[in-house]
Amino acid sequence: MPRLILSMDGLVLKEMPLEKERTTIGRKPHNDIQIDNLAISGEHAAIVTILNDAFLEDMNSTNGTYVNGQPIKKHVLKHNDVVELGKYRIKYLSDAAVPLSEQDEAVAFARTSIGQAAPLDEAPSAPESIPSAVPAVLGMIQILSGTHAGRTLELSKSLTTLGKPGTQVAVITRRPHGYFITHVEGTVFPTVNGHALDAQAHRLNDHDIIEIAGVKMEFFSQPQAA
Prior knowledge:
The chain has 226 residues and is mainly beta. It has one helix spanning 100-107; strands spanning 3-8, 11-17, 22-26, 33-34, 45-50, 53-58, 65-67, 70-72, 74-76, 82-85, 88-93, 137-143, 152-155, 159-164, 168-175, 178-185, 191-192, 195-196, 202-203, 208-212, 215-223. β7 and β8 (70-72) form a beta hairpin.
């Protein structure tokens, strides 16, 4: 399980596992990681964990969020990345680090804009190995509107990212007990059957209608080929 190590001026203050799908960081008491310092905004940043990937997002903080000395708004965390919040440091440790060159290729956040010219069914996704106990069915997405209306996307990878970077991005993960959609980027959350998602993963059922970045699509499943 990935871990975070909180420190200040070289002194380790706390070590914690990334157990939740969404971990919040800020000055207010309701945050998962509370840092009681005026340099830290009430709701400063959040980390969304999906399978082996962790996505860091600055929540429009006053003083900003930095990773390895660079200001970020959205960032895919890599093993040994150091998140900087004022005088505080949070080191991210992956439990299954891969060589940097491979991780750079694997991470890439695989963000695919549905409105781009690249065919949707060629959308990249993180090349993770699918667990041995995969669903007995194979999930599919059929695009109902937009440039790629009528196209069908096979959800054969363990993680598929959909949306428009900078506007609205969500991921669909393939788990042993089904397919789940999780909001990752954007102030407006995608909808499923007209209802906006919350911060938690939402299980998809046959014929659910998803709308993301202005594009409607239908989820359905079919028996997994032998």
